[in-house]
Fold Thioredoxin-disulfide reductase.
Amino acid sequence: MKDIIIIGAGPSGVSAALYAKARGKDILILEKEQIGGIIGHVSKVSHYASVDKNETGESFRKKLEAQLKYSNIEVVYEKAISIKKETDKFIIVTDKDTYEAKKVIYAAGSKLKELEVDEIKSYHWPFGKEDLLKDKLVIINGGSDGAAKEGLYISKFAREVHIVQDKDKLLCIDEFKKKIEDSSNIIVHTSEKIVSKVSNSEIKLSSGKTIKDKDEILVFVQIGQSGNSDILKNLENFDLENSFVKTDIESTIDGLFFAGDIRVKSVRQVSTAVCDGTIAGIKASQSL
């Protein structure tokens, strides 16, 4: 039996593991895909203290991976599918095995929402798809910081970028707004939604106007997130709000802690995830 099992190896899960390991606890991380979570896919990690000037999600992810390695923290790449609380322990079943722990830190984070237009093939992340983007007309659906950042990255390679936002203005920070305004190849459509595909080279918007090109249009989607909370539904004593957990870091279930983007919170950034993980790792260790 492990002292603490951490589900998810994004910034919050890694932070929790580092702080618990430093307190002499026997730690295991369960991660379904790759260390880093969503942040590992972004084109640039911005506004986090100490990152390099041109820090990509991949380079940041590799730093997290290296930290776990030199701290000798075990990571098992399996998908957790259920959590059961017994009197003095938790039983976690994955797609490959079963594990037991005295305490659990749930840091499984979130996933990006999909475009609800079935006939349109869409992507989330442009990093690694630079050759695909070259000389294309690209639509990015969304107006938040994430959408704006990825739209700016796409504009380095694409011939033309159309940002489609359903609000009456972009919701991103001023830094990104200014760069978008100054760009020569970014066009912003506010109070609009993508509603259908007329053809591979024509996309219809909610106002009735279309975005057309001579070649296939690529569509990227950054319209918010959903919490990875499916496996929590059999647990009692806490509520979900739009798939996110309504709880403090130390939950009402004895021994269960939540950290990072899985929680209902007003700000979801690397810094807030790391803060959650730090607190969860320390509190879980102190409770043993």
The chain has a mean pLDDT of 96. Residues 46 and 262 are 21 Å apart (CA to CA). Helices lie at 11-21, 57-70, 130-133, 145-154, 174-182, 270-286.
